[in-house]
Task: inverse folding
């Protein structure tokens, strides 16, 4: 198998879980992995020869630590030769809403050891759990990563209990992920009622300076079924939408990022073991080592290179549920979607199929009809084609502009998806949906016990502080320098998909809207405009 060029730490292929050890060292499989029992998995790497994941998926994680389902466990599959939508529709029609959930073919857990309730020494040189101490080291910063853990990180982290994923080597522990354990749901949070509207959700996101990047972690209770029901949420299943904010040093990242999350509320409100479903471009090598995958929430937010919380604030809308039926159904559909994604049947496109677009499509296909906010402007999209062709002499740039301006904003902007989903959840809770409920929407509405809003601050490091994400092209252009030469953009190398992993049944990607628009303008410029000029000249000559 060809090596994956984007790796951050090496790990040996381990056939069995890391055994429990004394002095605070535990296996990452001791607790939950989202909705699943960790004991149903084993630790491996993408080089394993007996994992259930498809070869395309394993290729991306050749040198990464993964959790793979044990032999005999039900694993999510896919149907070849059809689109993702068709596959999910068929699966949903034959999969009982309250049936058993298939397990993810792989989960990127990043490291084989885990320390719980750990404490960092004041100088950051040691990590302690109970009576045991290890010298403390970090995985290296990736070469393209612009910033890293430093003195401000130590000062922030040494005052709180930590969960640390990493690699133990004698008396030394090398950390891969550092997660503050006090980032958890506070079930005693006071109730703060807000309108069931996208504007109210936006106000929560923007309530603190810089979107809460430098504010404390906070829990806000937005709704509960009955007084006190939110306090009884431990071990309850959850379905959450996560929005990551804008980066402070990357002008391509003001739109933020979006992820759907499932799991169960951990002891004391813990959230680190929830499962994030992160869709990200597979064909580029991220400067931070991000690989599109299902991964524990603490890894998603606090991996030392790829963790979202190291470079921007984040927000979660958490639906606490009575049963796991709705969350399991959505998680099962996302698992099938990943199989199509790794095979390149589903291609990541920043304008038409990004993190928000993929997630919203899955919800809509299953029956959660997340409201559409519509395009920025079809007129502007149409006129942008000749404008950018003449200005830049580049049909690709003109096509990209057309796609951005004509795309449904709910699918295009992570913050808009977050607002519409949050408002819809509140309408379900209050019984205020104006449309006829689908089966999935009715299940969510019936099972809702509480809705929380969580604000996760940016972890201090050498990186510039982030901010809340934009919700429109107008806001985006107000943020970035007007001179393209002054914009902060991080060039990253491509990651070619190996030809031997390309299945013959994978169909060519559908044509982009922009291709049709550019072709129509080209035909108009060759035929239509000369004809109009000829008509104008003839009418003037006969006048």
Result:
């Amino acid at each position: 198998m060809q090596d994956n060029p984007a790796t951050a730490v090496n790990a040996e292929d381990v056939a069995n879980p890391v055994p429990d050890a004394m002095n605070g060292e535990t296996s990452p499989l001791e607790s939950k992995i989202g909705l699943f029992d960790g004991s149903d998995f084993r630790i491996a790497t993408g080089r394993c020869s007996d994992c259930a994941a498809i070869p395309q998926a394993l290729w991306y994680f050749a040198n990464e630590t993964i959790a793979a389902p044990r032999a005999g466990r039900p694993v999510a599959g896919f149907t070849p030769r059809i689109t993702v939508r068709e596959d999910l529709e068929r699966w949903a029609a034959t999969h009982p809403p309250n049936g058993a959930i298939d397990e993810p073919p792989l989960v990127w857990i990043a490291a084989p050891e885990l320390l719980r309730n750990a404490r960092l020494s004041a100088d950051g040189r040691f990590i302690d759990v109970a009576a045991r101490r290890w010298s403390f080291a970090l995985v290296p910063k990736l070469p393209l990563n612009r910033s890293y853990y430093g003195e401000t990180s130590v000062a922030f982290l040494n005052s709180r209990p930590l969960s640390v994923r990493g690699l133990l080597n004698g008396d030394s522990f090398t950390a891969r992920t550092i997660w503050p354990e006090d980032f958890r749901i506070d079930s005693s949070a006071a109730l703060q009622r807000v309108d069931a509207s996208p504007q109210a959700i936006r106000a929560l996101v923007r309530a603190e300076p810089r979107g809460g990047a430098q504010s404390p972690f906070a829990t806000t209770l937005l709704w509960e079924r009955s007084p006190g029901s939110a306090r009884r949420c431990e071990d309850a299943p959850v379905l959450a939408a996560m929005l990551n904010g804008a980066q402070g040093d990357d002008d391509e990242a003001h739109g933020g990022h979006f992820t759907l999350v499932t799991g169960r509320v951990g002891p004391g409100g813990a959230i680190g073991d929830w499962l994030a479903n992160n869709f990200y471009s597979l064909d580029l090598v991220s400067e931070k080592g991000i690989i599109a995958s299902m991964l524990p929430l603490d890894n998603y937010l606090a991996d030392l290179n790829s963790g979202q919380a190291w470079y921007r604030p984040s927000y979660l809308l958490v639906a606490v549920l009575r049963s796991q039926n709705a969350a399991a159904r959505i998680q099962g559909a996302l698992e099938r979607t990943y199989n199509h994604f790794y095979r390149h049947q589903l291609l990541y496109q920043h304008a038409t199929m990004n993190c928000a677009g993929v997630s919203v499509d899955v919800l809509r296909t299953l029956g959660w009809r997340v409201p559409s906010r519509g395009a920025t402007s079809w007129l502007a999209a149409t006129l942008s084609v000749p404008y950018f062709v003449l200005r830049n002499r580049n049909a690709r740039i003109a096509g990209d502009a057309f796609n951005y301006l004509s795309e449904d904003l709910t699918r295009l902007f992570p913050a808009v998806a977050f607002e519409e989903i949050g408002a819809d959840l509140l309408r379900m809770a209050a019984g205020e949906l104006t449309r006829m409920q689908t089966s999935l929407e009715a299940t969510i509405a019936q099972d809702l016990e509480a809705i929380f809003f969580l604000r996760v601050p940016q972890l201090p490091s050498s990186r510039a502080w982030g901010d809340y994400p934009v919700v429109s092209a107008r806001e985006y252009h107000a943020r970035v320098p007007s001179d393209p030469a002054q914009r902060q953009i991080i060039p990253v190398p491509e990651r070619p998909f190996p030809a031997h992993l390309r299945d013959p049944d994978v169909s060519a990607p559908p044509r982009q809207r922009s291709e049709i628009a550019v072709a129509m303008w080209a035909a108009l410029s060759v035929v239509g405009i000369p004809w109009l000029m000829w008509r104008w000249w003839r009418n003037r000559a006969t006048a």
About this structure: The chain has 14 helices and 18 strands. The first helix runs from residue 55 to 60. Residues 221 and 452 are 5 Å apart (CA to CA). Confidence is low (pLDDT under 50) at residues 1-23.
